[in-house]
Amino acid sequence: MEKTWRWFGPKDPITLSMLRQIGVEGIVTALHDVANGEVWTVEAITAMKNYIEQGGLHWSVVESLPVSEAIKYGGQERDLLIENYKLSLENLGRCGIHTVCYNFMPVLDWARTELDHAWADGSTSLYFSRAEFALFDCFILQREDAAQDYDEATMAEARRMAVTLTDEQRHRLVDTIIVKTQGFVNGNITEDDAEPLERFRELLSLYKGITHARLRENLQYFLEQVMPVCREWDMRLCIHPDDPPMPLLGLPRIVCNEADIDWLLSCVDDWHNGLTLCCGSLSANVQNDVPRMARRFARRTHFVHLRSTDVLPNGDFIEADHLKGRAHLVEVCRIFEELNPDVPMRVDHGRTMLGDEDKGYNAGYSFHGRMMGLAQMDGVMAAVKSQK
Ligand code: DNO
Question: What pLDDT digit, counting tens, does each position of 116-136 carry?
Fold first, then answer.
């Protein structure tokens, strides 16, 4: 597998020269300054590509080219937005960048409730608490009928927490769920939004009446429209699974498990319609057997995220050490080295450790924690290759 790293552009405090020193081979990035829905021009792509190449690396994967909400809920502007998306794909292809990660999660991209969950050794990692999410949904966002989406034990815990909820806790939860984890990924809500909750409610309301079946139809429609461009320019589209892989906030999620991926790959049965095998996201659903999925989908996987989770008895999950947890990354590496050895992989998220705390890194994207994960995975890959 190619060792890549998610880098957030020239303003990223983790520089390209640092990445070269730790064995990174390819860069994963996006044109973060282009507004969602606008065309990525050849000029802008070339400028980023040149910057990366001057730093001695190459641009391996785009993560992400965001899919606008109107494409997902099927709004009036969708055809126009799809045309823009096609142009961006074509321009990337012209510039020699062929792998593009995207997702089809309504409104909320990945979700966590805690960014600095303490480990016994003093480091921290990301965490998802069902009860805290229910607290946010039912008592802060106050979404209509939200309580019926949670089991009794989760609701009891959320109610208990609601009684003593302070303004500071309320602010932290809003900031974690809809600002800090989202701002840098799709621009739906940013740190500058004065009323993030209001903006979030507006976004949710766009999905009124959008069922699981409808969201699938809209994804299929999108894929059918973009596939000719992907074929012509050899663009490998790779959808990121839903993180966590379960419906949230009353919105459907359609890339959660093996059956969903089967559907996705067959609804437009073309090699260019592929998958980002995000081991961390998929492992947060106890039904998912990640190595099994890796084996089944290896040849349609164009990008791999190496991360693992531990799921607790109450359904909460914590981001685990890369060598531990339910994702079985050693086995996943073995599978890809056998079936798709050139696929780019990146170590996804890392613990916050050894001075990462005060650097202002994007949530999950620490330096030392990810570097440690990369070193672990590098060792695993070397071992697996030597046994081939
Ligand atoms: C979070 C990321 C996601 C991912 C997008 C891809 O850390 O894994 O935000 O980049 O879902 O479109």
Answer: 999 999 999 999 999 999 999
The dihedral region occupied by 107, where left means phi > 0, alpha psi between -120 and 50, and beta the remainder, is left
Q: How remote is the CA of residue 348 from the centroid of ligand 1, in Å?
A: 9
| Residue 368 designated active-site | no
Chain mean position to CA 368: 20
| Best probe residue, ligand 1, of 4, 8, 61, 63 (max atoms within 8 Å of C-beta) | 63
Tokens of 342: 């050139």
Pull the structure tokens for residue 168: 């500071």
One DSSP character per residue, 74-134 reads T-TTHHHHHHHHHHHHHHHHHTT--EEEEE--SS--S--SEEEEEPTTS-EEEEE-HHHHH
Global pTM value? 0.97
CA–CA dist 66, 187 (Å, integer)? 9
5 strand-pairing partners: 27
* 33, pLDDT greater than 90: yes
The beta-strand segments (E) located in the chain are: 2-6, 26-29, 58-63, 99-103, 114-118, 124-128, 236-240, 273-278, 301-306, 309-311, 317-319, 344-347
Of 98, 117, 240, 328, the catalytic one is 240
Give the helix/strand (H/E) hosting 52: helix 42-54
At residue 44, the pLDDT reads 98
Radius of gyration of the chain (CA): 20
